[in-house]
Amino acid sequence: MSTADMLKVRSNNTCELCKSTDSLAVYEVAPQEQNSKDNTIYICSKCEAQIEKKEELDSAHWQCLTETMWSEVPAVQIVAWRMLNRLRAESWAVDNLDMLYLDEDTLAWAKATGDHENDGSVALHKDSNGNILKTGDTVVLTKSLDVKGSTLNAKMGTVVKNIRLVEDNIEQIEGKIEGQTIVILTKYLRKQGS
Protein backbone atom coordinates (compact mmCIF):
# COMPACT_ATOMS: atom_id res chain seq x y z
CA MET A 1 0.00 0.00 0.00
CA SER A 2 1.41 3.43 -0.96
CA THR A 3 1.98 6.23 1.55
CA ALA A 4 -0.89 8.19 -0.02
CA ASP A 5 -3.24 5.22 0.35
CA MET A 6 -2.22 4.72 3.99
CA LEU A 7 -2.82 8.42 4.69
CA LYS A 8 -6.25 8.31 3.06
CA VAL A 9 -7.22 5.45 5.35
CA ARG A 10 -5.69 7.06 8.45
CA SER A 11 -7.40 10.40 7.79
CA ASN A 12 -10.72 8.89 6.67
CA ASN A 13 -10.13 10.80 3.41
CA THR A 14 -10.30 14.22 5.12
CA CYS A 15 -7.73 16.93 5.84
CA GLU A 16 -5.92 15.91 9.02
CA LEU A 17 -5.87 19.55 10.14
CA CYS A 18 -9.24 21.10 9.22
CA LYS A 19 -11.34 18.04 8.24
CA SER A 20 -12.06 19.44 4.76
CA THR A 21 -12.67 16.92 1.97
CA ASP A 22 -11.66 19.24 -0.91
CA SER A 23 -8.37 19.15 -2.85
CA LEU A 24 -6.49 16.75 -0.58
CA ALA A 25 -2.82 15.86 -1.01
CA VAL A 26 0.12 14.33 0.84
CA TYR A 27 2.23 16.92 2.67
CA GLU A 28 5.76 16.13 3.89
CA VAL A 29 6.51 17.62 7.30
CA ALA A 30 10.04 19.04 7.16
CA PRO A 31 12.76 18.29 7.91
CA GLN A 32 12.90 14.63 7.06
CA GLU A 33 15.31 12.13 5.59
CA GLN A 34 12.79 9.70 4.16
CA ASN A 35 9.12 10.01 3.25
CA SER A 36 6.86 7.71 5.27
CA LYS A 37 3.35 7.75 6.70
CA ASP A 38 4.86 8.81 10.04
CA ASN A 39 6.31 12.08 8.74
CA THR A 40 3.65 13.01 6.21
CA ILE A 41 0.09 14.21 6.62
CA TYR A 42 -2.95 14.40 4.38
CA ILE A 43 -4.14 18.01 4.01
CA CYS A 44 -6.29 20.29 1.87
CA SER A 45 -4.94 22.92 -0.52
CA LYS A 46 -6.05 25.80 1.75
CA CYS A 47 -4.07 24.44 4.72
CA GLU A 48 -1.06 23.79 2.50
CA ALA A 49 -1.11 27.29 0.97
CA GLN A 50 -1.14 28.88 4.42
CA ILE A 51 1.48 26.52 5.86
CA GLU A 52 3.74 27.31 2.90
CA LYS A 53 3.02 31.07 3.28
CA LYS A 54 1.54 31.35 -0.19
CA GLU A 55 -1.68 32.77 1.20
CA GLU A 56 -2.53 35.18 4.03
CA LEU A 57 -2.99 33.46 7.40
CA ASP A 58 -6.72 33.03 8.11
CA SER A 59 -7.18 32.82 11.89
CA ALA A 60 -10.77 31.60 11.57
CA HIS A 61 -9.68 28.68 9.38
CA TRP A 62 -7.16 27.52 11.98
CA GLN A 63 -9.68 27.35 14.84
CA CYS A 64 -9.89 23.71 13.73
CA LEU A 65 -6.58 23.09 15.52
CA THR A 66 -8.42 23.24 18.85
CA GLU A 67 -9.64 19.75 17.97
CA THR A 68 -7.04 18.29 15.61
CA MET A 69 -4.00 19.18 17.75
CA TRP A 70 -4.97 16.17 19.90
CA SER A 71 -4.18 13.78 17.05
CA GLU A 72 -2.00 10.80 17.98
CA VAL A 73 0.04 11.35 14.79
CA PRO A 74 3.26 13.24 15.64
CA ALA A 75 3.42 14.92 12.20
CA VAL A 76 -0.09 16.38 12.74
CA GLN A 77 0.90 17.53 16.24
CA ILE A 78 4.01 19.22 14.83
CA VAL A 79 2.15 21.16 12.13
CA ALA A 80 -0.52 22.14 14.68
CA TRP A 81 2.21 23.37 17.06
CA ARG A 82 3.92 25.37 14.28
CA MET A 83 0.66 26.98 13.11
CA LEU A 84 -0.43 27.81 16.67
CA ASN A 85 2.94 29.53 17.12
CA ARG A 86 2.33 31.61 13.99
CA LEU A 87 -1.06 32.56 15.43
CA ARG A 88 0.22 33.37 18.91
CA ALA A 89 -1.21 36.90 18.64
CA GLU A 90 -4.61 35.21 19.07
CA SER A 91 -5.56 34.36 22.66
CA TRP A 92 -7.20 31.05 21.65
CA ALA A 93 -3.95 29.96 19.96
CA VAL A 94 -1.88 30.78 23.06
CA ASP A 95 -4.36 28.82 25.22
CA ASN A 96 -4.04 25.81 22.90
CA LEU A 97 -0.24 26.05 22.84
CA ASP A 98 -0.24 25.98 26.64
CA MET A 99 -2.27 22.75 26.56
CA LEU A 100 -0.44 21.01 23.71
CA TYR A 101 2.21 18.66 25.06
CA LEU A 102 4.89 17.30 22.73
CA ASP A 103 7.47 14.77 23.92
CA GLU A 104 11.12 15.78 23.70
CA ASP A 105 11.83 14.25 20.26
CA THR A 106 8.62 15.57 18.72
CA LEU A 107 9.27 19.07 20.09
CA ALA A 108 12.81 19.01 18.69
CA TRP A 109 11.38 18.04 15.27
CA ALA A 110 8.78 20.82 15.54
CA LYS A 111 11.47 23.41 16.32
CA ALA A 112 13.90 22.15 13.65
CA THR A 113 12.64 24.51 10.92
CA GLY A 114 12.74 27.59 13.14
CA ASP A 115 9.29 28.51 11.84
CA HIS A 116 7.98 28.96 15.39
CA GLU A 117 10.28 31.98 15.83
CA ASN A 118 8.53 33.94 13.08
CA ASP A 119 5.22 35.71 13.29
CA GLY A 120 2.31 34.76 11.10
CA SER A 121 2.92 37.47 8.54
CA VAL A 122 3.18 36.34 4.96
CA ALA A 123 5.24 38.14 2.34
CA LEU A 124 3.16 38.19 -0.83
CA HIS A 125 3.52 40.06 -4.11
CA LYS A 126 1.09 43.01 -4.01
CA ASP A 127 0.33 45.78 -6.49
CA SER A 128 0.33 49.51 -5.70
CA ASN A 129 -3.20 49.20 -4.28
CA GLY A 130 -2.39 46.23 -2.03
CA ASN A 131 -4.07 43.60 -4.22
CA ILE A 132 -2.37 40.19 -4.16
CA LEU A 133 -0.68 39.25 -7.43
CA LYS A 134 -0.39 35.74 -8.81
CA THR A 135 1.49 34.23 -11.72
CA GLY A 136 -0.61 34.62 -14.86
CA ASP A 137 -2.33 37.86 -13.77
CA THR A 138 -2.70 40.86 -16.03
CA VAL A 139 -1.42 44.21 -14.73
CA VAL A 140 -1.38 47.85 -15.87
CA LEU A 141 1.59 50.18 -15.42
CA THR A 142 0.80 53.19 -13.20
CA LYS A 143 3.94 55.08 -14.25
CA SER A 144 5.99 55.38 -17.44
CA LEU A 145 9.20 53.39 -17.02
CA ASP A 146 12.53 53.47 -18.85
CA VAL A 147 13.86 49.93 -19.23
CA LYS A 148 17.51 49.70 -18.19
CA GLY A 149 19.87 48.44 -20.87
CA SER A 150 17.29 49.12 -23.59
CA THR A 151 15.77 51.96 -25.60
CA LEU A 152 12.33 50.69 -24.60
CA ASN A 153 10.09 53.09 -22.69
CA ALA A 154 7.07 51.41 -21.13
CA LYS A 155 4.29 54.01 -21.05
CA MET A 156 1.84 54.49 -18.20
CA GLY A 157 -1.31 52.47 -18.92
CA THR A 158 0.57 49.68 -20.73
CA VAL A 159 -1.11 46.33 -20.14
CA VAL A 160 1.21 43.45 -19.21
CA LYS A 161 -0.39 40.02 -19.53
CA ASN A 162 0.58 36.68 -18.01
CA ILE A 163 3.06 37.99 -15.43
CA ARG A 164 5.49 35.80 -13.49
CA LEU A 165 6.34 36.44 -9.85
CA VAL A 166 10.01 36.82 -8.95
CA GLU A 167 10.43 34.10 -6.31
CA ASP A 168 12.93 35.70 -3.98
CA ASN A 169 11.75 39.33 -4.22
CA ILE A 170 8.14 40.28 -3.44
CA GLU A 171 8.67 43.75 -4.91
CA GLN A 172 9.31 42.45 -8.45
CA ILE A 173 7.44 40.65 -11.21
CA GLU A 174 8.46 39.69 -14.74
CA GLY A 175 6.40 40.54 -17.78
CA LYS A 176 6.68 41.04 -21.52
CA ILE A 177 6.41 44.47 -23.09
CA GLU A 178 6.87 44.71 -26.87
CA GLY A 179 8.20 41.14 -26.92
CA GLN A 180 10.89 41.86 -24.34
CA THR A 181 10.81 40.23 -20.88
CA ILE A 182 11.52 42.82 -18.21
CA VAL A 183 11.45 43.05 -14.42
CA ILE A 184 8.89 45.53 -13.09
CA LEU A 185 8.57 46.82 -9.54
CA THR A 186 5.16 46.00 -8.05
CA LYS A 187 4.78 49.56 -6.73
CA TYR A 188 4.45 50.76 -10.35
CA LEU A 189 1.56 48.55 -11.38
CA ARG A 190 -1.97 47.64 -10.51
CA LYS A 191 -3.82 44.41 -11.09
CA GLN A 192 -6.24 44.74 -13.99
CA GLY A 193 -9.84 44.66 -12.86
CA SER A 194 -8.96 46.00 -9.39
TrEMBL record:
Segments forming domain PhnA protein N-terminal proteobacterial: 6-52
Gene3D superfamilies recorded: SH3 Domains
Superkingdom of the source species: Bacteria
InterPro entries per UniProt: PhnaA_N_proteobac (IPR013991), YjdM_C (IPR013988)
PANTHER family for this protein: PROTEIN YJDM, PROTEIN YJDM-RELATED
Protein name in UniProt: PhnA protein
Organism field: Niabella soli DSM 19437
